[in-house]
Amino acid sequence: MTSPKTPKITRAIDIDGVTVHYGDVLALDNVSLTLASGTVCGLIGVNGSGKSTLFKTIMGLIRPDTGTVRVNGGSPALARRDSAIGYVPQSENVDWAFPMSVRDVVLTGRYGKLGFTRRPRRADHTAVDEALERVDLAELAGRQIGRLSGGQRKRAFVARGIAQGARVLLLDEPFAGVDKRSEATITRLLRELAATGATVLVSTHDLHALPELADEAVLLMRSVLARGNPGEVLRPENLALAFGMRAREGEPA
Ligand code: ADP
Ligand code: MG
PANTHER family per the record (predicted)? Predict the structure, then answer.
């Protein structure tokens, strides 16, 4: 658990030479990446470029064939146990019919902090209430999670990460199928979290919004094609490489 005395960790996420296969499919090829605390990093790349695999590897849900992942200097499993890392999965990987209310979902963020009785205490309920307020969902707290719009669902999962107190947050396409208001709310929250020292890695297809969202960007295509400030990474020659588009506008792909 972090305390005010904990020294500032500059390498919140440290990925070194990570390669992942699914059977014969090479999903990540020798990926190395370090992310400093207090930053939002935008992860971009076409479908199938390995974004979700990278998230799962950082979470320790997939073990790489080669290479290492460190979160706050320790293993992903340790970071998960300490509730130091929060994850908003891609929507397709969530069972929306599951009979949980929005509040229940956010409360799952507190499970790592519950005492031996496993019963939520006042501090847990307070953290959940505050998180719901921050994502603008207090009024919908009792609703079944599947009965929310796409954007509201995403906000519920962001609230879970906030209630958890995670200082490292991974968000896999939080803006996909999301209304403008939810996108703006989530963007503002992520910026606020980074301003207080959190580390945020967020995949997105919304390239126009990237400069506003992210301090830096990573262009993935099984390996890291480009990395830097969003303006640099979004240069036409990089996009041409990653998205198979011609560098000059107006030319057919
Ligand atoms: P992205 O999130 O960028 O769309 P993914 O990480 O989901 O990319 O996928 C990367 C590659 O790995 C793709 O070729 C995809 O088909 C493959 N892949 C992803 N998950 C699995 C899986 N569970 N089994 C087999 N192949 C997978
Ligand atoms: Mg994906």
Answer: IRON TRANSPORT SYSTEM ATP-BINDING PROTEIN HI_0361-RELATED, METAL TRANSPORT SYSTEM ATP-BINDING PROTEIN TM_0124-RELATED
